[in-house]
Specification:
binds alpha-L-arabinofuranose; 24 strands; 2 domains; alpha/beta; TIM Barrel; ten-stranded mixed sheet
């Protein structure tokens, strides 16, 4: 096998920014089997008295997911939140036009709040700006966050929640630029509605933070002008603009492995648009990004919604393709891009958490299992918190049709508050090993606490209910000499190097 040298230099003083823990958030939508038969399945052997699956909760706790967006997605654009509260027997069944399914409303806001508490995570709610607007959004904020003494807050108390849910982060609709969206709008139409809705929601609760809908993908014709128009109206009323992206192998393996570069380009275009509006408005405020839907889609399901179910089933399987180690590498590339922009990307929501493109999969007659993408997500969530440090990476390049020559090595370094440094590194080459030299000279002598690698050792092997641990991270061999660590990175691999250091340096 070919081998190439690669160098990585990390300096504690070259800081990108603090990681907002919400960067490792996720997303639960009433879509397919994400809610029903996913997080909620009263008849499952592991379910608690509320119907919440214990095996799924265990895996979510393992991932330490800080925030979860709910209830959609495309679903929210036809949703009446009132349908999902109150006595379960009184809740209506409705047609869900987004996924052509039947929604029973057995699971709603209170069940989600209970699930979040059990999972140790924070709620992030989206309001319906497709078929509804200002009034339904402000009454939902009143229901969820107002202490008591009004019709909507007292109704919450009547429904068994004396304390307000105190939801901090709210999305003003979902993908409103897309013709597939129920109640799709032009940029002007959405911008005005979002502006007025934002004002009313904050008049109810001034402590909340709002996410305006950005473009749903760079491929949408109105990108990024949509974002400009939306921000021109909402700039003073929102904290974030949303970014969505799903990447797949459809344009070839090389292109897929450049996932981090595609994601960088999108993030940087949205940041430029935010700052353009900032300059026009002569504003001191900066808008941050909520990358509140991101993922790779496995080869057998190139995108959400491609496998449309028969009309109106209950919780049909949608987008449940399984992932291999190559998917885990492309997934890691997107996550590195989010980390690299930690100064502007504050929120990230992996779409979705269970079954629908999920890192966690379930079946009714057995335990939940971890997909390959579970592992880079776990590594990021566990060791990607702290301060992102800028890296200088040197490696040969590899050609990608849509991008030109791209470096084989992609890497990000994060310094944890205990001083340890974690380097996440990808080898994008499909046929060459990278002999990596990690130079940490500004940190004094180093030691390797832990080192892991994931690559496709078995030609497309996947984790399945019968073989749930077939594809796992394995130890990565390293050598240390003073402040230098060396390791050989396999072609198409995801790698983690956790280093202890002896020299204290300023941590911002
Ligand atoms: O995550 C699946 C779907 O993808 C979401 O409902 C929608 O927002 C996006 O198009």
């Amino acid at each position: 096998m070919e081998k190439h040298p690669a160098q990585l230099f990390v300096d504690p003083h070259h800081v990108v920014g603090r990681v907002d823990p919400r960067l490792f958030g996720s997303f639960v939508e009433h879509m397919g089997r994400c809610v029903y038969d996913g997080i909620y399945e009263p008849s499952h052997a592991s379910a608690d008295s509320h119907g919440l699956r214990g095996d799924v909760l265990d895996l979510v706790r393992e991932l330490d997911v800080p925030i979860v967006r709910y209830p959609g997605g495309n679903f929210v654009s036809g949703y009446r939140w009132e349908d999902g509260v109150g006595p379960a027997d009184d809740r209506p069944s409705r047609l869900d036009l987004a996924w052509r399914s039947t929604e029973t409303n057995a699971f709603g806001l209170h069940e989600f709040a209970e699930w979040c508490q059990a999972a140790g995570t924070e709620m992030m709610l989206a309001v319906n700006l497709g078929t509804r607007g200002v009034d339904a959004a402000r009454t939902l904020v009143e229901y969820a966050n107002h202490p008591r003494g009004t019709q909507w807050s007292d109704l919450r108390v009547t429904h068994g929640a004396p304390e307000p849910f105190r939801v901090r982060t709210w999305c003003l609709g979902n993908e409103m630029d897309g013709p597939w969206q129920i109640g799709h709008k032009t940029a002007q139409e959405y911008a005005r509605l979002a502006e007025e809705t934002a004002k009313a929601m904050k008049w109810v609760d001034g402590s909340i933070e709002l996410v305006a809908c950005g473009s749903s993908a760079p491929s949408v014709a109105t990108f990024p002008d949509w974002d400009r128009v939306v921000l021109e109206h909402t700039y003073d009323h929102v904290e974030y603009i949303s970014v969505h992206r799903y990447l797949s192998r459809a344009r070839g393996l090389d292109d897929y492995l450049a996932s981090g570069i595609h994601t960088d380009e999108q993030i940087e275009a949205v940041i430029a648009t935010c700052d353009h509006v900032r300059a026009k408005k002569r504003s001191r405020k900066r808008i941050h990004l909520a990358f509140d839907e991101w993922n790779v889609t496995p080869t057998r399901h190139e995108g959400p919604g491609k496998e449309e179910p028969e009309d109106w089933p209950f919780a049909p399987p949608i987008a449940e393709g399984t992932y291999d180690a190559v998917d885990a590498v492309a997934f890691g590339g997107m996550m590195l891009s989010l980390l690299r922009h930690a100064d502007r990307v504050r929120i990230g929501c992996l779409a979705q958490l269970v079954n629908v493109l999920g890192p966690i999969k379930t079946r009714t007659d057995g335990p939940a299992w971890r997909e390959t993408i579970f592992y880079p997500y776990l590594h990021g969530s566990r060791w990607g918190r702290g301060t992102v440090l800028d890296v200088v990476a040197q490696s040969p390049t590899t050609p990608v049709e849509s991008l030109g020559d791209v470096p084989m090595l992609d890497a990000v370094a994060v310094r944890a508050d205990d001083g340890s440094v974690t380097v996440f590194a990808i080898n994008r080459s499909t046929d060459a090993e990278l002999d990596l030299t990690l130079d940490l000279r500004a940190f004094g002598d180093v030691s390797v606490i832990d080192s892991l690698t994931m690559y496709d050792a078995e030609g497309g092997a996947r984790n399945t209910p019968d073989e749930p641990d077939r594809v796992l991270p394995r130890p990565l061999a390293t050598a240390v000499d003073g402040s230098t660590v060396t390791a050989s990175l396999a072609p198409v691999s995801w790698n983690v190097l956790r280093c202890g250091v002896t020299r204290a340096a300023t941590v911002v």
